[in-house]
């Protein structure tokens, strides 16, 4: 059974393995470690014996939750884990008083775009070259209070 839990220092090597298997240009272990310390309890993992997915966010200002990264081990995809991890992050953002959540996603990352749309995110902007030359990102926002617009 997969459990969603707080990440701890001892999870980081396994988080990094998920990261490495999920992204062309993975975050280095040292950066993941830095996020573990600056994100408070906004770093969550999915465990099935080992870490099979993770999500990390940070608060920006008093109202904004920023989703920094989300990834699920390839063999565990398509089973709802991405949704569960992000859902847990949204609940934690909400408890901290965030009114909305935002993130960046590659414009051609159809699977992630589908996931975010299904959770109520919508595109509000474009960051040109965000992931490197010619690799643009949409900025997506989700209202955590169930209202139509965001403040
Ligand atoms: C994006 C990612 C985290 C999704 O994780 P996941 O556990 O497979 O996602 P879920 O099973 O919770 O699926 C949630 C939604 O994603 C979309 N989705 C998932 N797999 C999909 C597929 N193969 N094709 C199209 N859409 C898909 C669907 O909208 C799905 O909702 P539905 O089940 O109601 O149709 C995972 O694919 C991943 O780690 N990708 C590589 C890293 C990455 O791109 N991270 C996002 C960076 S912005």
UniProtKB/TrEMBL annotation:
Domain N-acetyltransferase: 2-145
Domain of life of the organism encoding this protein: Archaea
Molecular function GO labels: N-acetyltransferase activity
Swiss-Prot/TrEMBL keywords: Acyltransferase, Cytoplasm, Transferase
Pfam entry (one): Acetyltransf_1
InterPro entries per record: AcTrfase_RimI/Ard1, Acyl_CoA_acyltransferase, GNAT_dom, YpeA/RimI_acetyltransf
Similarity comment text for this entry: Belongs to the acetyltransferase family. RimI subfamily.
Name by which UniProt lists this protein: Ribosomal-protein-alanine N-acetyltransferase RimI
Organism lineage string: Archaea, Thermoproteota, Thermoprotei, Sulfolobales, Sulfolobaceae
């Amino acid at each position: 059974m997969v459990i969603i839990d707080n990440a701890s220092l001892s999870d980081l090597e396994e988080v990094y393995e998920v990261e490495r298997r999920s992204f062309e240009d993975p975050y280095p272990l040292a950066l993941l470690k830095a996020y573990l310390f600056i994100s408070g309890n906004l770093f969550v993992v999915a465990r099935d014996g080992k870490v099979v997915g993770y999500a990390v966010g940070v608060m920006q200002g008093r109202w904004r939750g920023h989703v920094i990264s989300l990834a699920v081990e390839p063999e565990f995809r398509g089973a709802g884990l991405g949704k569960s991890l992000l859902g847990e992050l949204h609940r934690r953002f909400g408890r901290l008083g965030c009114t909305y959540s935002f993130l960046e996603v590659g414009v051609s990352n159809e699977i992630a775009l589908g996931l975010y749309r299904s959770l109520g995110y919508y595109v509000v902007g474009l960051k040109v070259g965000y992931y490197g030359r010619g690799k643009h990102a949409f900025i997506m926002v989700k209202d955590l209070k169930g209202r139509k617009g965001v403040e």
